[in-house]
Amino acid sequence: MVIEKHAKKLGVKTITYSQDWEFSSSLSKFYLRFKKRHYVFPIPSLEGEHQLTNAATAAIAAKLLKKSEINDDVIGTGIRSTFWAGRLQKLTTPSAKSLPRGWSLWLDGGHNPGAAEALATSLSQWQQKPLHIIFGYINSRDPKEFLRPLANYIKTLNAIKIPGEASSMSAKECKLAAQQLGITATVSSDFREAVEKIIKVSSKPGRILICGSLYLVGAVLRHEQTKHT
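Predicted structure:
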């Protein structure tokens, strides 16, 4: 690997997953092995299987610091209490609270193929309810590259323009990209109209996920904060 070669040139020691450390998990805990020692930590508060890898990596980094004040309890508290807005975040804002019984509203700021792959892993576990996407994207990227890993899990897609963002792709372009991947798609003026449309045409409760851009995440959170105040 490039990083390993560069580290070797600099005389920097590397700590490599599966060679120097590894982890496994259960429903409520994950188990870390490092330097012939075993540690038990809580499952991360953040949604998504990739967050388990992130938490395990962070725990290893904390162990390498060798600071007595960063003990296992401190590491566990950090893992359990970490919050990252817009990372597969289940909203409890006014728009979410106004949804009919059985519905939920989610927000994710992933905007590249790697983020889409990670998101798809989580969506694969959501198949007990229909998934409806509200999608906005930046015009410097190919939306199909983001939507392709998600396509099999999407019941419907509502394309919107990111409010207040000059570099936003048009809703029609987003809709066309989704349709080219075989996704049932339509256009809405904003996320509020999209939510209303989804509820109106759906025969049973589902999940609504707003995704595709950090700019869109920011716009939604700002709106919800204003609505709350």
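Summary: The two ends are 51 Å apart (CA to CA).
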